[in-house]
Design goal:
By secondary structure, this protein is α/β, with parallel strands linked by helices. It has 13 helices and twelve strands. The strands form three sheets. The chain has a seven-stranded mixed beta sheet with strand order 2-8-7-6-5-3-4, with helices on both faces. Strand 11 and strand 12 form a beta hairpin.
Length: about 350
C-alpha cells in the first residue's frame, strides 16, 4: 500500500536555500549571505521585546490591530489598507493564495527573489519567468508582452534581489500602461530604504494612480528585525481585504508586534535610518573595490552587490567559506554571487578575500 503523496507541483518544488550560517566549531564568520543589516537591535527595541516576554503564554493580538493602525498612519493610507504577516514572504504567499490558483499564471523577472517560483507553485499557479537584461534589470517590454489572459499576478522586484538595479519611474509607468487593470501588480520593495536613485519608482506615490497595485515591504532589512518576521502590504481596500482573509491567525507573534511598533517610534526610526545611511555609504566602496578586481558589478541600490560569476560561482563561494574566519556569501549555482554590504570591517574582509582568490 502506497503512502500519502503530495500534490505533484509541491513534490517538484525546489528547496529555498537560506544564506550560510557558518560552523559552531570555527571562528565567527563574516556573514554576508542573507542581506541582514550588520547592527544589533536598538536598545529601545530590545526593551520592548523584553517587556512582552512575561506574557508569552498568552496569544498575541490575532489581527495585529495596533500595528495595522500604526503602519496606516506612518504611510498615510489608513489601517484598512494594510495587511501584516509573518515576514514579506508570508504576505506574498497570502497575496497569491487570494489571487492565483490552478490554471493561472504568475509573471516575474528571473533571476529574482527565489521565493517567487516556490510560492507560485504552492498556490497551484504556473510561474512565468522572463529573463533579466544583460545588466541585471527587468526587461519591462518582454514582461508586458508575456502577459496572457491567464496571467493573474505580476511581481516586480525593485531593487531586484539578487542583482541590485531598481525599476525606474518610466519603466514602471510603461509596464502599467501596457497591462490590463485586471492584472494584480505586486511591487516588492523589500530594500526600498536603501535606494538613492532619484529616478527609481516609489511605490507609495504609485498607489494612488493604480487601483490594481500592491506594495510589499518588510521590517527584516532596514529595520533590523530579520529574526522577528514582520512584513506588510499596502494597497486599495478591495485588494487588501482578501489578502487579510488569508493571513494565518496569530502568525505575527507578540514579540514581533512589539518590536515593529518600537521601531516605528520617530526617534527609533530615525536612528535605524542612520544605520541604513551607513550601509549605503559603504556600498559604492564595496562595488568599486570589486570592479577594480575585474568584476562587472551591476548598479547596486539594495544592501547587496551582485557578481556574475557564472560557472565559477560555487568554486568561489566554497573557497571564501574555507577561510579562517569564513567569508560567507550567497551563491546561485551557475549564475552568480550575492554579497551583502556589511560594516567597513566586513567589507574589507570580502575585498581581501576576493583579491586573494584572484591570485590563487
Amino acid at each position: 500500500m502506497s503512502l500519502p503523496q503530495p500534490r505533484p507541483e509541491v513534490a517538484g518544488l525546489p528547496a529555498y536555500v537560506p544564506g550560510a550560517r557558518g560552523d559552531a566549531d570555527r571562528l565567527p564568520p563574516v556573514k554576508l549571505s542573507s542581506n541582514e543589516i550588520p547592527y544589533p537591535p536598538l536598545p529601545s527595541v530590545a526593551r520592548a521585546i523584553a517587556r512582552v516576554g512575561d506574557g508569552i503564554h498568552r496569544y498575541p493580538d490575532m489581527q495585529a490591530s495596533e500595528l495595522h493602525a500604526r503602519l496606516g498612519e506612518r504611510f498615510g493610507v489608513g489601517a484598512e489598507r494594510v495587511a501584516v504577516g509573518g515576514g514579506s514572504v508570508a504576505v506574498l504567499q497570502h497575496i497569491l493564495q487570494a489571487f492565483a490558483g490552478p490554471g493561472d499564471e504568475v509573471l516575474f523577472a528571473w533571476r529574482s527573489f527565489e521565493a517567487y517560483p516556490i510560492l507560485t507553485s504552492i498556490a497551484g499557479a504556473t510561474p512565468v519567468m522572463v529573463p533579466l537584461t544583460a545588466d541585471g534589470r527587468h526587461d519591462i517590454d518582454a514582461m508586458a508582452a508575456a502577459v496572457t489572459d491567464r496571467t493573474r499576478v505580476a511581481m516586480l522586484c525593485s531593487p531586484n534581489n539578487p542583482t541590485g538595479p531598481t525599476l525606474t519611474r518610466d519603466e514602471f509607468a510603461r509596464f502599467m500602461a501596457a497591462v490590463p487593470r485586471s492584472l494584480l501588480v505586486v511591487l516588492d520593495e523589500a530594500y526600498v530604504e536603501f535606494v538613492r536613485d532619484a529616478d527609481a519608482v516609489a511605490g507609495l506615490e504609485e498607489l494612488e494612480r493604480h487601483p490594481n497595485l500592491l506594495v510589499l515591504r518588510t521590517f527584516s532589512k532596514a529595520y533590523g528585525l530579520a529574526g522577528a518576521r514582520v512584513g506588510f502590504a499596502l494597497g486599495p481596500v478591495e485588494l487588501i481585504t482578501p489578502v487579510r482573509a488569508c493571513v494565518t491567525p496569530f502568525s505575527v507573534s507578540s514579540t514581533a508586534q512589539a518590536a515593529a511598533m518600537a521601531s516605528l517610534e520617530p526617534v527609533a526610526e530615525a536612528e535605524l535610518l542612520e544605520r541604513v545611511d551607513a550601509v549605503v555609504a559603504e556600498r559604492p566602496r564595496l562595488r568599486e573595490g570589486l570592479r577594480a578586481l575585474g568584476w562587472d558589478v551591476p548598479e547596486a541600490q539594495g544592501n547587496f552587490v551582485w557578481l556574475p560569476a557564472g560557472e565559477r560561482t560555487v568554486e568561489i563561494a566554497v573557497a571564501l567559506a574555507a577561510l579562517e574566519p569564513a567569508v560567507l556569501v550567497r551563491p546561485f549555482a551557475g549564475e552568480g554571487i550575492r554579497v551583502t554590504v556589511g560594516s567597513a570591517v566586513e567589507n574589507d574582509a570580502v575585498l581581501a578575500a576576493m583579491e586573494a582568490h584572484r591570485g590563487a
